[in-house]
Design brief:
This protein is α/β, with parallel strands linked by helices. Helix content is 27%, strand content 20%. Strands 9-8-7-10-6-11-13-12 form an 8-stranded mixed β-sheet, sandwiched between helices. A 5-stranded mixed β-sheet has the order 2-1-3-4-5, with helices on both faces. The longest helix is centred in the first third of the chain and has 16 residues. The chain starts with 19 loop residues before the first helix and ends in a 7-residue tail after the last helix. The structure holds NADP nicotinamide-adenine-dinucleotide phosphate.
């Protein structure tokens, strides 16, 4: 789960690229690789930046390493040996125009003398957007939309969160082949094998918070910690959140969670997500039982589905989801599979709502962030 820095590209002496478009596209692909070295959790987007010389060779690279550290563009400028005069900045997200914990990147690029800026994704933020306009006003040549689809997909979690002003929601369950998540007596440990369960720990580490209902707490007494192969606690622990009216028992394992516990005392999922947004939570892994999972689906709050399918049969009524209000087959909630992976003897199916792309288009017209 630890990330290593991406190896630096050799810069001076690289052969000149045949033309500007090819050099900029290659640089954008590299910028996306750099961006992926940043942290997946937290309030900030993962951004990468490559500074190109007029001959298309790479002058410097940078990426954002997390909240409070320099943004990708500033990191690339800091890594530069010499002047940025006349360079092109190729950056995965439109440079920001606001002062947060660091200064506006658009101003830093102008001050450094960068001649051209190429970005993949427009900044959807209320406060941070406007960088392209600011750059143009300062005489910088700006082009947006290079590899936009790849950039949007890469930044999907952050973009969904800022556009909907609520955390990105991943719903996870582990079920038998016949879609059951527990046996008749409510026991569910374990349906999947060790590889799938370890994968769940990695998914926990990739979210800011984990959410369950009181039913799961009372039935399973989960610790909701991120643990390694040998059961050891990992350094990064998402915030555990319990929804529901009943209190979490005083001796529950969750009471010993290293991050403490958010006990909401409510069934109102939207209110809980709103509260979590205000606590700077940008992604939530829902690991609740069928009651909470179904409520999240019914309310259209699920962005990604992670379904761990074990080759086992449980039968009975304890299905992964209960009533979704689908009265007839024409009303089914069709999902789109985005990946299928084998984990030991189990399968992990990742999916999203079939209308997710349309919703993203709708979102693009409103939404906001405070990057
Ligand atoms: N295989 C898996 O992936 C998996 C994962 C988790 C759980 N499970 C199994 O699921 C079972 C527990 O199921 P569950 O459905 O009781 O768990 P749950 O969904 O985690 O909790 C349900 C409880 O949460 C509260 N709640 C919170 N928000 C609600 C809402 N919007 N509407 C209604 N109630 C809400 C209610 O209790 P209050 O009265 O307190 O409000 C409700 O009884 C156990 O057998 C467990 O082992 C399986």
């Amino acid at each position: 789960m630890t990330r290593t820095d991406p190896p630096l590209h050799s810069s001076p002496g690289s052969p000149a690229a045949p033309d500007r478009a090819a050099a900029e596209e290659a640089a954008m692909r590299r910028a996306l690789v750099l961006a992926a070295a940043g942290p997946l959790t937290g309030v900030n987007p993962r951004v990468g930046c490559v500074l190109l010389r007029p001959d298309g060779t790479v002058a410097a690279e940078g990426w954002h390493r997390g909240s409070g550290t320099p943004h990708a563009e500033v990191a690339a400028l800091a890594a530069l040996d010499g002047s940025a005069e006349g360079l092109t900045a190729v950056v995965t997200l439109e440079p920001c125009a606001h002062t947060g914990r660091t200064g506006p990147c658009a101003d830093a690029l102008v001050a450094a003398g960068v001649a051209r800026v190429v970005h993949a994704v427009d900044d959807p933020g209320d406060a941070s957007a406007g960088g392209a306009t600011r750059l143009r006003q300062a005489g910088v040549d700006v082009e947006g939309g290079l590899l936009r689809d790849e950039g949007e997909e890469f930044l999907r979690r952050w973009l969904v969160a800022v556009r909907r002003r609520r955390p990105f929601v991943t719903l996870k369950w582990a079920s038998s082949l016949d879609g059951r998540t527990a046996a008749a007596d409510g026991t569910s440990r374990w349906i999947t094998g060790a590889a799938a369960r370890q994968h769940v720990h990695e998914q926990r580490a990739a979210h800011d918070a984990i959410l369950v209902g009181t039913g799961t707490v009372l039935d399973d007494d989960p610790s909701l910690t991120v643990r390694g192969d040998a059961g050891e606690l990992q350094p990064v622990q998402p915030l555990p959140v319990v929804v529901g009216r009943r209190p979490v028992p005083a001796d529950a394992a969750l009471r010993r969670h290293p991050r403490g516990l958010v006990e909401t005392g409510t069934r109102d999922l939207e209110a809980v997500l709103d509260d979590l947004w205000r606590r700077d939570v940008r992604s939530v892994l829902v690991e609740g039982g069928p009651t909470v999972a179904s409520e999240a689906v019914r309310r259209g709050l699920v962005d990604d589905y992670l379904v761990y399918l074990a080759p086992t049969l449980l039968g009975g009524p304890r299905t992964a989801l209960d009533d979704l209000g689908v009265g007839t087959i024409g009303e089914q909630r069709r999902l789109r599979t985005t990946s299928v992976e084998q984990l030991g003897h189990d399968l992990l199916l990742t999916a999203r709502a079939d209308d997710d792309d349309r919703r993203a288009d709708d979102d693009r017209s409103d939404g906001g962030s405070d990057r």
